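Let's practice the habit of predicting before peeking. Look at the sequence and jot down your guess about where helices and strands might fall. Then scroll down.
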Amino acid sequence: ASAVLVERDNRRHRNDIEVCYLQVFREARQRIVVANAYFFPGYRLLRELRNAARRGVEVTLILQGQPDMRWVRALSRLLYNYLLRDDVRIHEYCQRPLHGKVALVDDDWSTVGSSNLDPLSLSFNLEANLLIRDRAFNEHLFQHLSELTREHCKTVTLERMVRGYWWRAPLIFLGFHITRYFPRIAGWFPAHRQRLQSLQADSEAPAGYHGGKT
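Done guessing? Here is the structure:
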């Protein structure tokens, strides 16, 4: 297998993880599976997922059905109509709060890491994802996620989400445009920079130290 570690920070790697997702979604030809705890991506990622489904790629999302923070599910559901209309498959994991952050594309690309597809992960947080090129790992992950959707998830249908759409429509409109311009808006605020301090051992051992292990 080949693998590379990709990070996101507020200095030199502000959008590295997002760019990797955009590239593989754009190049996908067979399948895309994303399992995320928090799903509220920006407009570009939403557009690439929808475009992939339109050209025949099987796009599957596994999201929280019983989140530890209810507003997470409410935000994600604002996007469901937009994706379901283009045959994106959405499943909600209902056994317990989901904190998975994995994805796979076609039969050889996978990622496992700390980053969700949401504004905090993509624009603020210090994150790291391992990108893996390996068919065996991809297939193993795909089989595991497929079993998860069959045994422990509920499928979300467009018919179900259309009910009450009239009052969600304004929120959906605002959600699209907020996420579309979120990185630009976030740039108006001071960036959080991680502060690391090197620790050096003192030349003299502390009192009471006799060379034993702690």
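How did you do? The mean pLDDT is 83.
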